[in-house]
Structure to design on (228 residues):
């Protein structure tokens, strides 16, 4: 079946504008993650959704970042008042969780490259 | 906090073996992963190993884990040009919710 998809693939925006990044997880996957990869750095965890539980927002770098997941499927990551340091590749991943006992493989999307001018 | 370190770059000749190394700090890691990222593509899981294993082999890939030294390596036998990519080491450090990634090792295969 289809993998994780993200849109747009590239986004160029001006400093101070808001952006929305979309993630479509693999159908049936209950867990969804957002990461970002800045140039020369490893992946940074942002937020995690699992089923109907409250999301783990501990990785969000500031209150300008928010995310929601509608209907347990599609997720949107919103960055308000973008700054140049927000420039990065934003990756979404999904996984199928079995009762929390096993670590389930995360399948990554191709990412959205955000450039803030 | 948790930390995963890798060298930035590795160059090998086609047909040789490649060994990509990684060190991590979290002694409670349960799973350790290797991901591959080709240009313009998302991350692809290559393989993973349970922390109670020393070695895992999957076709041309061999993963070695030294838990005492917190050292993980990925060996690619008979490296091909299609293996050119960035390889990320990762470990789960907070249950399955979060995975900590290294910076990635860029593998260049010379024909």
């Amino acid at each position: 079946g289809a993998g994780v998809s993200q849109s747009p693939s590239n986004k160029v925006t001006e400093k101070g504008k808001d952006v929305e990044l979309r993630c479509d997880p693999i159908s049936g996957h209950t867990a969804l993650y957002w990461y970002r990869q800045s140039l020369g750095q490893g992946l940074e965890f942002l937020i995690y959704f699992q089923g109907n539980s409250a999301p783990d927002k501990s990785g969000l770098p500031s209150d300008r970042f928010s995310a929601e997941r509608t209907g347990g499927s599609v997720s949107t990551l919103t960055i308000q008042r973008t700054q140049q340091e927000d420039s990065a590749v934003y990756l979404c991943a999904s996984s199928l969780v079995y009762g929390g006992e096993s670590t389930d493989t995360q399948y990554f999307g191709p990412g959205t490259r955000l450039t803030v001018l | 906090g948790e930390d995963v370190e890798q060298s930035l770059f590795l160059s090998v000749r086609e047909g040789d073996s490649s060994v990509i190394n990684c060190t991590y700090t979290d002694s409670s890691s349960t799973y350790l992963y290797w991901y591959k990222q080709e240009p313009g593509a998302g991350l692809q899981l290559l393989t993973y190993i349970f922390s109670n294993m020393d070695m895992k082999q999957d076709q041309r890939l061999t993963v070695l884990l030294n838990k005492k030294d917190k050292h993980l390596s990925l060996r690619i036998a008979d490296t091909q040009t299609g293996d050119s990519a960035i390889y990320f080491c990762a470990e789960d450090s907070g249950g399955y919710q979060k995975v900590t990634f290294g910076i990635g090792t860029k593998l260049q295969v010379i024909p």
Observations:
- Chain B has a mean pLDDT of 86.
- The two ends of chain B are 40 Å apart (CA to CA).
